[in-house]
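Protein modeling request. Please complete all fields; requests missing the sequence field cannot be processed.
Requester role: graduate student
Desired output: 3D structure, token encoding
Chains: 1
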Amino acid sequence: MTATNRLSTGRIDPATGDQGRAFHVYTQRNLDRITAVRHLPADQRFAMKVVSTVLPFRVNDYVIERLIDWSKVPDDPIFQLTFPQPGMLAPEHYTQVANLLRRNADKAELKAVVGRIRQDLNPHPAGQLQLNIPRLPNGDLVTGVQHKYRETVLFFPSQGQTCHAYCSFCFRWAQFVGDKALRIAATEAQRLHAYLRQHPCVTDLLVTGGDPLVIKTRHLEAYLEPLLHRDFDHVQTIRIGTKALTFWPYRFVGDADSDALLALLERIVAAGKHVAVMAHFNHWREMETEVCEQAVERIRATGAEIRTQGPVLAHINDEPGDWARMWRKQVRLGILPYYMFVERDTGAHHYFKVPLVRTWEIYREAVQQVSGLARTARGPSMSAGPGKVEVTGVAEVGPRDVGPEQVLVLRFLQARNPDWVNRPFFARFDPAATWLDDLRPAFGEREFFFEPEYRERWTSLLH
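Delivered output (463 residues):
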């Protein structure tokens, strides 16, 4: 008996009494139609409109009804995760947009101002447009693909350039604002498949977006089933990055093609590939519904594994106890904690950022509260231009009799140059730093060991 037969969509969610449910989404255009929002103060509703004019907003009934505790708004973590907050824009940006909305400025003027603000928000961090998009031998760009690390290729299917709801901190926010110049997306898979054939060093394909699980299963089949051919034996792992377990677990339980999706995962596993659902979780509350647990059970029954990741975020999860509780629940459900990230320097970074030293303290104190099975989570890690940089800790280095220097200890977990991986390096202690660019080398060094080669990569692009 297959996994999909063992766990049929006939199971009813006891918390709602329904067998799946209709998907109903809200965006800025119908924000005022959300019943709970209509009960909020007028100035709060106006602030939502201002911020969502610049940053993308999308939420659905499941999040509104099942995940947010409206009695604790605006402090509720899932409300902060999904709804616009006034502090997400710099004061000068907020004032500009608010004034335009108050005087009903024409669309062209509003669009121009919003476009300039978005450019100020670093829409494509870490050089992803310039350094990550590869070319075929004939010089053509492989659109919708990024290849930053030797073993791993990212694929952005065009149908997946949205999500069931949007995270307010999302580093991919530029994909969702309707500006084609800011979007990375592929309209067809032939170039992806050609590129993979030409690169036998690639062992992992990460299907990402947006969220690829907004895509109908038949489209996913067209992208993924060709990879079962022997031409792609070197592609050993297929990862699917998704927030569906939080924002729409019915994707695995009650949607019309839920069984087909799980059957696809099962076929890929049976063909000898490793399938990893890379689930984004930011708070333990996201896993508290019965339907989420059912979805986890169904995925695991296919032979796929679930790994989890998410950043440390002010206003949402910047307490060690939240992470420890989340990791313990994940282990109980058979999920593997994978990464704790540092919030990227893009979008509403100034609102969500947590200093690196404090982020490391949160990680350390959370790990101390869990067993070894939950200590699989690596981090805190910055997905910066040169690679994934882990903050390993704070140390005092040097003879005590002359005054040791307090430093941040860092290492690459992944890097553009594989030779950089696991090489420790040191930065001056800076309790206010929130990103790699804020750090300076320790011990009087002028630059970090990787900087000359990384700078050369940028220089070659300019020439």
